[in-house]
Amino acid sequence: MTTSFAPLTVAIGDLVPHPANVRSNSPETYDPENIAHLKASIAILGLLQPLLVQKLDGKYAVLAGGRRHAALKELIADKASKGFTAKTKVDCRLVPDDCDVTTALSLAENITQAPMNAIDEFEAFARMMEVDGQTPETIAKTFGTTVAAVKGRLRYGLIHPDIRAAARGKVITLDTMKAFAEHPSQEAQREVFEALTKDGGYLQAYTVRQTLKSRGVQVSDDIGAFVREDYEARSGAVAADLLEEHSVLEDAALVETILLEKLGAAAEEARIKLGFAWADAMVRYDYATMADYGRVYPGPIEPDEAARKRIDEITAGLEKLQLEMENEGLEDGAYNALYERVDALEEEARDLQEAYSTEDLARAGVIASWSSGQVTLHVGLVRPEDTVKEEGKRGVSTSPTGEEAPDPGEISYPASLAEDLKTERAMALGAAMALHPEATLDLTLFKLVSDVLASGMSVTQAIKIDARKEYRNHAKMDEIDETSLAQVAAAHDVLDLSWLDDTRPPADQFAAFRALDAGEKAKLVAYATASTTQSCFARDPRRDSLMHAFEIEIMPDIRAHWTPNAALFNRFKKAWLLKILGEHLGLAQEAVTLASSSKKEIVAFCDKLFAEPFATLTDAQRAAVAAWCPPMMQTAGVAFDEAKPTAETPEPDSEVAQAA
User: Fold this and answer.
1) Coiled-coil regions in this chain (predicted)?
2) Which of 248, 430, 499, 513 could be cross-linked to 533 through a Cys-Cys bond (beta carbons 3.0 to 4.6 Å apart)?
């Protein structure tokens, strides 16, 4: 019957309301505020659905589509709108004179009433900004929505066309499509999309976001804001977003380099000011890693005459400030300013009455790290090799246990590599937790209950029970072994998320959640807790016995969740690689053969060796390859040193050692 509604185009000026339109007697329906969204949509996308009209008295009366008709008239009246005049023609369908009006209206419900696709709306917002030069504020006013909502739509409308097409075709979900907006570069989006879909399978929003994080740092991130000026001065690539806060500093390695340089400069400035022996920097200060470091503190000294005079001045100033702070009429800003002055004067007074000893200054140092969006200084730290001195002689150092300090030629790990290995270890632990839901549920509930009911410090700081995913920083996230990512993704795929529906009230969602099977709840809690695991190395049983024991239980062997690959070996020196092959893995002959090869060739050999141990390996060599990882990556279980084939390890003066 729809074929009798012949298509035609009609000038907007020739359209009039139809007396049979059921909304014609509801003036509020056509209020400009009520049709603002529709007006903006038609201005960008055109009339997506034709009007249903009937010929009356030489005009075309709008039988269905009165609001669209009103929006068209508003566009004619709005001189800022382009391309809409009384002579502009729009698509219509003609209802024959002999057609029953009730039937026509019923058909109109099926023919002309179609909701706007979400992706269409995203693209419409983007075109309004790109083509018409509108701002988020003007778009928000036009659509009757918030600026924040407009900003969100703008980002999604600029996602790579191939990805938007995949969302339209239901190949990926709308949520997964939105995840690509984390990076404004369509080229980066396309590369990640192709890499993640090349083997087929279900693509998750979480995986997209994690992969894109390795492609740079947003300028709105605290680190991005901190390094941006220096980054741009070095011509670092910036992926510009329509909205400034979503722009990305694309060179993650350069960002980390600059951050470490600035942290190092801050540490050096503090070293000079305080008179310490050394300064260092690390992106994240890990207390477990630094557990073996000692610490020195300033002791009391007798101030000289000038210092005593200044102390008296400070004392008088503090008394005056305390009286000012007792004024109950002070506003918060004024009170806080006085408080900061008091704090500064008290610190100055302490400095005049305390000092580090000459001996402590000669062995202690400063480490600068990035914490809570700012540079944090850790002063008075003493390296393990400097904590005990043989026969009191400076420069001859031993470890805290009395053993000789490591040989300078031994493998050492730069701060940047150590930070990244901590990230990879946290990811592996997260995978293990997700795969052991019952144990992880017990841990989560125990921490939650203990932290609330017990007195004193938290039972562990290794996991966060505040429902926030841990941000995992890594210089080369897109190159690391993906075993743990795949395991977490698989754990996510089997979660029962039927209760998670934003369209339902929280109470209804909670009721649905409570109705889940206990096993399903355990999986959900385990997955959520796994997402909070922090970057760290093996737990110190003296400092965190709970997590130390828990890791032994669920992850005795990190190699079940992580495999060393080229991304790691590329960051090792050639001599280290030969040492690992010859001494740690018992591949003495291979190490000798590769000694004359380039580092690239050695890296490729190691990558293949660990990806799939060669059939020619002995049982001992195979066991060593299966167990090896950098020492700090070990959780507990069997250390790789115990698994290496000692019988085949060359002596220090062997040809392998000489080649290395």
Assistant:
1) 335-362
2) 430
Sheet order of strands, 15-17 included: 6-11, 89-94, 51-56, 59-64, 15-17
Type and span of the H or E element at 576: helix 574-579
Residue 124: what residue type? A
Please state, as a whole number, how many other Cβ atoms lie within 10 Å of the Cβ of residue 407: 7
Rounded CA gap, 249 and 352, in Å?
44
Per-residue pLDDT tens for 583-611? 999 998 898 889 888 888 899 999 999 99
For residue range 87-106, what is the model confidence (pLDDT) as tens digits? 999 999 888 877 766 555 64
Using DSSP's 3-state secondary structure scheme, residue 429 falls into helix
Q: Is the pLDDT of residue 627 over 60?
A: yes
With contact defined as beta carbons under 8 Å apart, do 632 and 413 qualify?
A: yes
* Cβ atoms 118, 149 nearer than 8 A: no
> Going by C-beta distance under 8 Å and a sequence separation of 6 or more, which residues neighbour residue 635?
429, 538, 551, 552, 555, 556, 557, 558
Q: Who contacts 325 (Cβ-Cβ below 8 Å, separation ≥6)?
A: 335, 338, 339, 342
Cβ(73)–Cβ(12) below 8 Å: yes
What DSSP string runs through 533-557? PPP--SPPTTT-HHHHHHHHHH-S-
Instruction: Write down the residue that tokens 């190949």 correspond to.
Output: 171
Highest-confidence range of 18-32, 159-173, 539-553, by mean pLDDT? 159-173
Lowest mean pLDDT among 56-60, 251-255, 410-414, 651-655: 651-655
Write the pLDDT tens digit of every residue in 292-333: 888 888 888 888 899 889 989 988 888 888 888 878 787 878
Of 565, 537, 501, the C-alpha closest to 635 is 537
Long-range contacts of 549-554 (CB under 8 A, 24+ apart): 550/439, 550/443, 551/429, 551/432, 551/635, 551/636, 552/635, 552/636, 552/637, 553/436, 553/439, 554/432, 554/433, 554/435, 554/436, 554/439, 554/440
Query: Rounded to the nearest 10 degrees, how much is the dihedral formed by the CA atoms of 278, 282, 288, 290?
Result: 0
Percent pLDDT > 90 in the chain is 18
Residue 541, CA distances (Å) to 287, 315, 640 in order: 13, 45, 19
Q: How far is CA 345 from CA 304, 315, 318, 352, 410, in A?
A: 18, 9, 7, 11, 47
Contacts of residues 105-110 at CB distance under 8 Å and 24 or more positions apart, as own/partner, are: 105/20, 105/22, 105/63, 105/64, 107/1, 107/2, 107/5, 108/52, 108/63, 108/64, 108/65
pLDDT at 321: 86
- Do 298 and 389 form a contact (C-beta atoms < 8 A)? no
Among candidate residues 57, 72, 70, 71, the one with its CA nearest the CA of residue 9: 72
| Per-residue confidence (pLDDT) for residue 168, from 0 to 100 | 85
pLDDT at res. 645: 37
pTM: 0.43
Alpha-carbon distance of 53 to 104, in angstroms, equals 10
